[in-house]
Amino acid sequence: MTQKEKGKLYLVPAPLDFGCEAQAPLQDALPFGTLQTAAGITHWICENAKSARAYLKRIDAVAPLAAPLQAQNIQELPREVHKKGDHAGQFDARPLLAAALEGHDVGLLSEAGMPAVADPGSSVARAAHDLGLAVVPLTGPVSLLLALAASGLNGQNFAFVGYLPQDAGERQARIRELEALALKSGQTQLFIETPYRNAALLQALTQTLQHNTRLAVARGLTLANAHVRSETVKSWRAAKPQPTTDERLPAVFAIGR
């Protein structure tokens, strides 16, 4: 009896318009090859099953699904993985990959962008390697790299530091810490925030950073109303009216010299 061939884990990127009022045409945001591969997968791991089904419905309109939406096997990552992250090796995702051991390809989905980059999912990729499964990242938008490329900041030495503290005092201290690192080493510092907190973060940045530090904000990347602004903090402060962020648009922030 021959051993059953294992399936693969595909990291399937999603468009960056999650939660936005307008959606970009799917074929403009992702290569057709990525959409074709995703359409052939029937087993999924995701953050939210409802969002996953909505994305699969969009894929089906471009590349017909191999199985009806109702027949797709969709598993959600535990909520604590969303809240606490899954980068420390504490969450065992191997049970989620049982279908791959039975020969089915499994897709890993994020709400937006590339799974496991600024989103949960690294534990699933790690588990796949531990189980001897091939891990295949598909081509699609990664907001952090798009923002970095458009910022004019150092693209050869950079770090993504996730979310900054919500407490005003702790956030100010963290901003100063990251600025000192950026100015001393030349390493660009990238971070994000929940869209409805973007305005508060932008205000904290313009009030806290030194006037010669360069601040870049990339909003709504890949959308029709995308906008990237990269100037010294002195220029940000001098702008009239004061700059704001659209609370519906996801944004990536970067600081450097």
From TrEMBL:
Residues 52-234 form the Tetrapyrrole methylase domain. Keywords: Cytoplasm, Methyltransferase, rRNA processing, S-adenosyl-L-methionine, Transferase. The keyword Membrane does not apply. One of its GO terms (molecular function) is methyltransferase activity. InterPro entries: 4pyrrol_Mease, 4pyrrol_Methylase_sf, 4pyrrole_Mease_sub1, 4pyrrole_Mease_sub2, rRNA_ssu_MeTfrase_I. Its EC number is 2.1.1.198. One of its GO terms (biological process) is rRNA processing. The keyword Transferase applies. This is 16S rRNA (Cytidine1402-2'-O)-methyltransferase. It comes from Variovorax guangxiensis. The lineage of its organism: Bacteria, Pseudomonadati, Pseudomonadota, Betaproteobacteria, Burkholderiales.
